[in-house]
Amino acid sequence: MHMKICVLGLGYIGLPTALLLAAHGSEVVGVDVKQSVVDCLNHGKLPFKEPGIEDLYLRAKDRFVAESEPGAADVFLVAVPTPLDPATKVSDLSYVKRAADMIAAHLKEGDLVILESTVPPGTSERVVIPRLEKSGVAIRDFLYAHCPERAIPGRTLKEMVCNSRIIGGYDRDSTEQATSLYQTFVRGEIYQTDTRTAEFVKLMENTCRDVNIALANEFAKLAEECGVNVWEAITLANKHPRVSILNPGPGVGGHCIAIDPWFLTENSTRCRMVSTAREVNDSMPNYVLHITRNLLTGIKSPVISIFGVAYKGNVGDTRESPAFKFIQLAENEGYAIRCHDPYVREFPHPLMDMADAAAGSDCIVILADHDCFHRIDPAELRMRTKFVVDARNILDHERWTGQGFAVRVLGDGSLVHPVPLDEGIPSAGLYSTDATRPVTASSPPSVPLLSLTGERGSSSPVHGFERGQSSREPHPGNTRSYMKRVCIISQHFPPEKSGNASRIYDTAVHLARLGIDVTVLAPHPTFPTGSFPRTWRRAQEGAVDGVRVVRLWTWQPGSGDPGFTSRMAYYLLFPLHALLWLCSPRNRFDVIITSAPPLFTGIPGYVLRRTTRVKWILDIRDLWIDASIGLGFLREGSIYEKVSRKFEEMCLARADLVGVTTEELGRRISSRYRVTAPIELMPNGVNTDFFRPTNSGKKQQIIYAGNVGHAQDLEKVALAVKSMNGTYNLKLLIVGDGDTREYLERLVKAENLTESVIFTGILPREEIPGLLSESLVGVAPLKRLETLEYAAPTKAYEYMACGIPFIGCGNGEIAHLAQESGAGVIAENTPEAIAATLSSLLDDPERREEMGRRGREYVAEHYDRRAIALKLKQQIERITWTGA
Question: Which residues are catalytically annotated?
Answer without folding.
Answer: 202, 256
